[in-house]
Structure formats: structure tokens, C-alpha cells
Known about the structure:
The protein is an alpha/beta fold. The protein folds into 2 domains: about 5-75; about 90-230, Toll/interleukin-1 receptor homology (TIR) domain (Rossmann fold). About 45% of the residues lie in helices and about 10% in strands. It is built from 10 helices and 5 strands; from the N terminus they run ααααβαβααβαββαα. It has helices spanning about 5-20, 25-35, 50-55, 60-70, 105-115, 125-130, 135-145, 165-175, 205-220, 225-230; strands at about 95-100, 120-125, 150-155, 180-185, 200. A 5-stranded parallel sheet has the order 2-1-3-4-5, sandwiched between helices. The radius of gyration is 18 Å and the shape is globular. The protein starts with a helix and ends in a 13-residue tail after the last helix.
Amino acid sequence: xxxxxxxxxxxxxxxxxxxxxxxxxxxxxxxxxxxxxxxxxxxxxxxxxxxxxxxxxxxxxxxxxxxxxxxxxxxxxxxxxxxxxxxxxxxxxxxxxxxxxxxxxxxxxxxxxxxxxxxxxxxxxxxxxxxxxxxxxxxxxxxxxxxxxxxxxxxxxxxxxxxxxxxxxxxxxxxxxxxxxxxxxxxxxxxxxxxxxxxxxxxxxxxxxxxxxxxxxxxxxxxxxxxxxxxxxxxxxxxxx
Length: 241
């Protein structure tokens, strides 16, 4: 059965990012040749291994793409393989998709941070804002978790005790996406506790958003994806958290 175009593009994106995080350019060539995939012709030079990998796989059959994904161990955990459409606010976006995990009582803080991340080409998902009232709540969250490029945990009071937040953390760990913790009154616990958390201190949402952007831009797992996102013009805003 032929994959839908949107599913194929999502899977190529995930495979490309996985290859760029694991291998050098020459190793990518060796890896793909094992599946009969040739190096991309024309359009070079390629400064991004993510773009290079997607170009090489652009015209190969669906079954080959699925075999490559399976070899990388990502077939069962991708948005495309799950057959899910992205959540409504991420449909058709080229921006970096950041899932913002938070307790419901702090949705305004999460939304404020989402707004401050937007100028960097980072489109956040805040469940209590981005799910349309007529859409099934859990299903839409699952779509976002499958489609996300990165995960941000906002550790306000009650985060560790929230079953929803802990399930979201577990999902992100299982998918192996880049994870960032923001400590805002509560320390990270469990598996996510091994990641050094950002401290809120007396910083504004704009300052924290800038640091998150810096972290994503410096990490090899997310740098290429973020660079490919369409940046928006920054707007000065002195409103505090």
C-alpha cells in the first residue's frame, strides 16, 4: 500500500534527522547504498546531512524508505508510521514543532512561552490552547507527541504528580527526541531528571525563549531542523511572565 504524501514526508524528515545525528556524510552514503539508494545528484553542495539524506531518499520507493527507517529503529515510533495527521495547529507547518508539557493550572505560562518562541521559527504545542473544543483531547495530544521535533517540560508545582505530564515525558523519552526541562518551582524527577534543567530565576519569558533557541540550535539532533524552519520577525515585548 502506498503511503500518503504527508506520511511519507514526515517519515523522510524523521529518517533524515536520525541519519544526520548518527553518521558522517560518507557513512550516510555507505548506509544508504546497502539499500540500493544512490547519493543525490545535482543540487549540491549540501551543507546539511539532514537535507542531503532527504534528497537521496526523495524518489526511492515507499518500501525502501520503510526498510531504511526500520533499520534505524524508528519505524514503530514515527508520526508517519502511526498513520496520524499532525494536530491542527501544526498542519502544513515548516516551523520547528516543540511540544510544551505543563500542568493545566499553568497554561498561561506555557502559552506565554509559546508566543515568545515563535519569532525563532519554533511553533509550540500547548494542549490547553491548541486543541479545538470539538476534537478528542487525548487523540490530539497523541498526534502532537508523534509529530513533535522536540519536547519542553515546564516543571511548575504539581508537574511530577501529574499523570498526564509523566506520560508525555515517557513518550518523549521513548521517541528519543531532544528534551529540555525548565525548572519553575519544582525539580525534574525520574528519567527526565538526568537532564540539566534551565532555571527560571528572575528571567522573562523572552530571555528563556532565547536560551531554548540557543540550546536547540547548538544540539546536533535539532540544529538542522531548526535551521530549516522559517523564522519570523521578532517583536519587542516587555510584558513579564
